[in-house]
């Protein structure tokens, strides 16, 4: 916890005094006892980390910055069918966002998003219907099909009892 917090410390005003009760536990001859002052300090620092200016909501209008150069052409690619099969599902999930990526070497990235390294799992699961729609949309736009073939698919879909 302290490593992540100290990394963002320059963005958190008065961090050392807020963390003092927790830092006291690290002293050599100090008995380790997590009590109310430590919990209050922990909660306060957690609130500081999750509010401006340390963190902000994702802005879809801004480019995504990555230090992994091979991702840039993959994310910025327009044709889903040209992407490797193992990447297509992830790219389909990005399609509604019109994502664009920019490469910046890791040594030039000032603040790494430490919370992205251990994200919470989505408790609602995947939204299958949206994924299927995105996949169908990608197939229709990426593949040139004749109108008769599309009519045949529409008719078969309409006759399917499950769909």
Automatic annotation (TrEMBL):
Recorded superkingdom: Eukaryota
Q: What is this protein called?
A: Uncharacterized protein
Q: Which organism is it from?
A: Aldrovandia affinis
């Amino acid at each position: 916890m302290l490593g992540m917090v100290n990394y963002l410390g320059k963005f958190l005003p008065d961090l050392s005094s807020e963390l003092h009760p927790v830092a006291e536990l690290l002293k050599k001859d100090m008995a380790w006892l997590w009590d109310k002052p430590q919990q209050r300090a922990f909660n306060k620092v957690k609130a500081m980390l999750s509010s401006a200016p340390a963190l902000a909501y994702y802005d879809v209008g801004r480019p995504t910055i990555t230090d992994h150069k091979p991702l840039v052409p993959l994310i910025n690619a327009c044709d889903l069918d040209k992407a490797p099969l193992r990447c297509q599902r992830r790219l389909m999930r990005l399609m509604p966002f019109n994502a664009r990526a920019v490469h910046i070497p890791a040594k030039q990235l000032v603040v790494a998003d430490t919370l992205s390294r251990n994200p919470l799992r989505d408790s609602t699961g995947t939204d299958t219907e949206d994924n299927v729609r995105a996949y169908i949309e990608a197939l229709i736009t990426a593949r040139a099909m004749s109108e008769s073939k599309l009519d045949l698919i529409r008719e078969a879909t309409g006759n399917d009892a499950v769909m």
